[in-house]
């Protein structure tokens, strides 16, 4: 462990604050957006940059003070793999339960009689 | 060679994964990683009933960087929408007709849709030929569909040749 130079201090703080702000905005989105489906957008997208910023800060800090450290990237890989899938499943559950959507929503889904695999 | 390493990309991924997990590169760690990267695909191959070949690794890399850029842009977009006044968004449920086939390419496309600006994949169509997309702020549904086709699906079609 060695002392952190001043420029590195600034760069690392920038990334950590950036990540924290996005994580905060994502949580705020959960509160502010109008319906279930819209609320899903906030955590799936904003956590990626939120966690991403903090990961970059962590990589820089440990690479500068100690030896090169990249295993934080694993967190990013897992997040990219799992975030869309959990969002997809939540959306599926929301559709299944026919949760109410806001009035502004344009519903462009096919009607049952338009399905291509109807057997009549 | 193909008998010993049935899924080369998967083996490379496992090796890189192992090295990241160990957080250092030394001879011993690398040798153990190579052994694992050969044994794990051999052992689990029977469980994989689908086969996907990566036809253009370079295009896949390019796709990855395009996606990374779009994820950053989408983060700023959503942040702006959240911080704006409440009633100004126009969500939509859109059915997106699929051109590509195969489990893996469709999964990649659905994940891409969820990670990129303003759209989430919600459901695979009953016949497997369409994805239901929820858009957070869509003024022109046709333009959204066209953009996904142009930007992502065309590239995936080339990468996986499906």
From TrEMBL, chain A:
The keyword Transmembrane applies. InterPro entries: PhaG_MnhG_YufB (IPR005133). It comes from the Bacteria. The chain crosses the membrane at residues 12-34, 46-64, 70-91. One of its GO terms (molecular function) is sodium:proton antiporter activity. Keywords: Membrane, Transmembrane, Transmembrane helix. This is Na+/H+ antiporter subunit G. It comes from Pseudidiomarina insulisalsae.
From TrEMBL, chain B:
It holds the Pfam family MNHE. InterPro entries: Cation_antiport_E. Its main location: membrane. The lineage of its organism: Bacteria, Pseudomonadati, Pseudomonadota, Gammaproteobacteria, Alteromonadales. GO terms for molecular function: monoatomic cation transmembrane transporter activity. It is a multi-pass membrane protein. Keywords: Cell membrane, Membrane, Transmembrane, Transmembrane helix. PANTHER family: NA(+)/H(+) ANTIPORTER SUBUNIT E1, NA(+)_H(+) ANTIPORTER SUBUNIT E1. One of its GO terms (cellular component) is plasma membrane. It is found in: Cell membrane. The chain crosses the membrane at residues 12-40, 60-83. This is Na+/H+ antiporter subunit E.
